[in-house]
Request: fold
Amino acid sequence: MIQKKKTYYVCQQCGHESAKWLGKCPECDSWSTFQEEVRQATKKQTRHTSKASAVMALLEINDQQHSRISTGIKEFDRTLGGGIVPGSVIMIGGDPGIGKSTLMLQVLDSVCENKNILYVSGEESVNQVNLRAKRLGVRNKQIMFCTETNLYNLLQQLESMGPALVIIDSIQTLYNEEIDSIPGNISQLRVCTGALMRYAKSADIPLFLIGHVTKEGSLAGPKVLEHMVDTVLYFEGEQQYDYRILRSVKNRFGPVNEIGLFQMTEKGLIGVTNPSHLFLSENDTHKSGNAIVAVMEGNRPFLVQVQALVTKTQFGIPQRTATGIDHRRMNLLLAVLEKRCGKPFSFHDVFIKVAGGLRIDEPAADLGICMALVSSLDERSFIHSTVYIGEVGLGAEIRSVSRLEERIKEAQKLGFKNIMIPAASKVRLDLEKNKVQQVKNLQDLI
Reply:
């Protein structure tokens, strides 16, 4: 009997299915994301042919402590929470050319395993990967390589080889012959990821999936892929700078929002153990419009420099430009300074930048941003070697922030003599001995 084919439309952002084409997805409100797909109609099975799994008491299950696999790269292990967990599925996303393949090759070269480890590439040839490996100085002879995009052939290769670690570069290049759609389609991504995940769990081996990102910076494909895998890492960085940030946004085996900092060199990526020194290497606080803030990225504190430039506007509407901080947060702080502190920013153009291309999202940098703005407006520099820590409320009050002691210790380690913190903060350090000053509101500090 000839099986009928059914045509349907799938949103490439969220996976919503529709019987007809829609301009706007009713699920995620995305425009022009529906693509036509063909599905083979099959009869429903009335009996369960697969064997059911055994039911066990939760408290009687024997604890099997799996030791993490160290990659030999401290920054990478830090991001994962201490190393690679056997049987975990890790997805790494990032912009094209950011260094995802370079990082994976270095991880394979550093992992100490007696068994073979497999690198599967669907985008580059053997010669291209070989040239990169020679440039990076790869010496691990256990690294095996193949170019395969067919899911069935890849699973057969994995079954026969039995590698200790697998890297797929990239998941968008794999396809299943039974699905009538192009590689990278939402159906292909879902089926290929599910099949590889089942193999990794059953074989108890770690699996790395390299994924593309969209223009908005999110992983290409539906959000269900991020829910399926155990860990999601984003490889970030500006093309104009030579450092990269590996950020954990989901981790079932460790903390989230943990970061690893790398510096791109001719020999590959090198871990940065002292990020504060990197972002403050060209620090010049003697000029107006500069302030040092202490921020937290994951469990790591480091200092960055905030620069502000305030000039009289030449037009009716002043310009507002922010690089490295949220534009709405800048407008909020400007309104607080003008309303509560009497600073006339309405007649000035304001430009704010975080030195080094880093992006700051936490509110602990509010106090430093405000002081940089006031310094540029009044054309005067404040106390040299000062670090500002605190959140600014709508009433110009300075609010306490989390993990204050770690921020203070990081500032003191780098030789900063004056540290401004919220007055309501409770710290165990000797404030007078460490030259830490508590401030209650912006008016008193200015």
Q: What stands out?
A: The chain is about 25% helix and 25% strand. Confidence is low (pLDDT under 50) at residues 43-50. The chain has three domains: 5-40, 69-273, 277-445. The first strand starts at residue 5 and ends at 11.
